[in-house]
Structure formats: C-alpha cells, structure tokens
Amino acid sequence: MFARNVNNNSKSNCLGTADFGYGFATAQNPVWTLADVLNATGGELINIANDPVGFRSVSTDSRDIEPGDLFLALCGEQFNGHTFVKNAVKKGAAGVIVSQRPKDSLPIPVVLVNDTLTALGDLASYRRTTIPELRVLAITGSSGKTTVKEMLATILNERFTVLKTKGNFNNLVGLPLSLLPVGYRHDFAVLEMGMNRPGEIARLTEIADPDIGCIVNVQEAHLEGLNAIDRVAEAKGELFRGMKMTGVIAVNLDDQRVATLACHCKQKKIPFGRNKNAFVRATHISNCGEEGMAFTLHIGAQKGRIRIKSLGRHNVINSLAAAAMAYAAGLEFIEITRGLAEFTPYEKRLQIQRMANGIKLINDTYNANPASMLAALETVEGLKRHNKAVAVLG
Prior knowledge:
Blueprint: E1 32-33, H1 34-41, E2 44-47, E3 54-55, E4 58-59, E5 70-72, H2 85-90, E6 95-98, E7 110-112, H3 116-129, E8 135-140, H4 145-156, E9 162-164, H5 174-179, E10 188-192, H6 200-208, E11 212-215, H7 223-226, H8 229-236, H9 238-242, E12 248-252, H10 256-263, E13 268-273, E14 280-287, E15 293-299, E16 302-308, H11 314-328, H12 333-342, E17 351-354, E18 360-363, H13 370-384
Parallel strand pairs: 4-5, 5-6, 6-7, 8-10, 8-11, 9-10, 11-12, 12-13, 13-14
Antiparallel strand pairs: 1-3, 2-7, 14-15, 15-16, 17-18
Helix pairs in contact: 1-3, 3-6, 4-11, 4-12, 11-12
C-alpha cells in the first residue's frame, strides 16, 4: 500500500485509507522554499542541504512524486507513509517531512515534525497567508454542503478564478490538500468542511481562516461520534465561533439550531431561507418534475424568477445558501441567478437515468444520512405521479 498524494483524483474521505490524492500535476505558484516549510511547520531541519532548495508542490503519494516535489509522510490506521520515503527520494523528491527519524542518511533536506497530519494542516494554513488577496468561503452542514459548494463555485466562476474542494475532500486530510494548490491566479477558494467528532471543524476553520462561512443545516448525522443532535449542532457551530470578527456568516433561518448558533456570533449575518424575515429568500416555489425546481429569488429588494436543474425542494434551500454566500462575496444579482441556472447537479445526486426497458432510475448514491434520505424519497414521491416507485436501499 502507498500513501496517496495531491496528484490523483480520488473521493476517499477518511484518514483510515491511503487514498488522498487529487489531479493537480502543475507546479504551485508561488513555489515552496525550505524556509517556508520550516516557518509553516516549526519543524527541525535534520539533514542540511548545500544549496537553496525550492519545492514545486507538496505531495503525500510516493507513487506520483515528480522531481522537485516535497514528500510528506502521512500515517493512518492502515499504513505508514514513512515506509515510502526512500521510494519518494528515488522518484525525485527534493525534500521530505517526517515524524520519524530516517534510519539511513538521505541526500535531500529532511524536516522532522511532531505529527505529519498537523504539519499538513499547518502548510495549508501558511499557504493561505501567502495569497493575501484570496478570499476563502467555507461550508459545513449535515447534508447539502457538497451541492452548495458546487453551486457557489458555479456562481463565482461567472467572473472569477475559483479553487474548490474536489469531490468531498473535506476532512483533516482532504481540506489541506484542497487548499495547498492555491496560487496567485485564484480569487476565491470554496472549501467544504466535514467532521465526525468535536474539534474537527475548529481545526479546519483554523487552517482555512474563512472570510465567509455557512452552516447549511444541522440534522441527525455523525451520531456515532456525537451521540445527540445538539452535540452535532455544537460541533458544526465551531465554524461560526472560529471565524474572525470581520467575517460574514450566512444563516439558515429555516433551521432553528443554525439560527440559535448564529445568535451568539458578532460577525455580519446574511439570513437566508423561506422565512419571510430572510434577506435571501424564495417564494412561489414550483416543482417542474424532471426539469428541476422553479422559484422567485429575493435578495433584499431585488427579485427574479429562476429555474434550477436540481430536483427537490431541499435544493431550493441549497440554492439560497449559495446565493447568500455569493452576495456576501460581492456578486451581482444577475450573476447569482445566471450561475444558479447554469449549475449542473453533482454526479449521483438525484440523477435520472432512462433504462432500455423504459424504467427511470434515480441515482442518489453519492452519500446519505436520514435527512438526505427523506429528502430523496420526498423528491421521488413528487416525480412518480401515477407510476409505481420502488426504492432500493442499503
């Protein structure tokens, strides 16, 4: 088994596997200097280089190392990245970050840290500070966060260059790997934050230092690690509590737990929802069947009719969350409505496929929790009309 890296397109979302990669093959701009790495991680240089050293990118996969990369040896439940340090050197790594001293001498700089997972997050945090004009938008929630992230990125792409989380790379490994490739060309980074236990969102918020944040909802998810929905709310609330006072938070007024979390926050708030008091709200919602959903979008005094390609009423709320964050980011009303209309639903999210025998298969296998499962079943109920519907569940 190998430790995966930034340069391979995978959707794994847990530290217990070695599959952490992305498809970023180009060098990062700016490149990393050895001084950057030492400043970011607080590590000890235990193998001194004769010449100034720079690194084209940070990698956690020995298989995909290219000459000039910096290899970081992650450790998980089923693998130890230190096993592949020699392989990384053979493939051209210009430096390595380890938490275990190498048994043999290496011909490249070796940076020793206490914990390589912490170092990965520290590198991403440092990277974020090197692009002062970058604005970071962070999204968490029990369900819908991937859809909101994709909707928001589509809106921002109307005018800006955007880096976004690939797939659901949203944990303590995935978020740093999402942020590390950011460069001078990027205006925004749109990051998804997931968690299984208290403290994870707080650490992700510390790494990303978001300018705009949103908790899409609080539902019965991750109960195996948190036991009760109120503890889920507390853990999700780490995003709002960890944000700087100059930040902006988008608040779902339709979710009482989210609204309560926001009551204790001093950041500027942009309320969204179907609630009549929401600054960003939806009225006159219509189900267009397989064509998606239509509604009137209100942002303050501005309003306009819009149709999204996504199925289900829950995606109207997701649209409002994306619209509220885009408004906070300075997008115009017309850009927001155009971006939402152009958004294409994410793969395996209520995708309709027509079988050869005429049956319609609705593929919603991307992910699930009780609330998202209920939303999917309600959507199918609205589509089936006089036909029979069959649910195939795990």
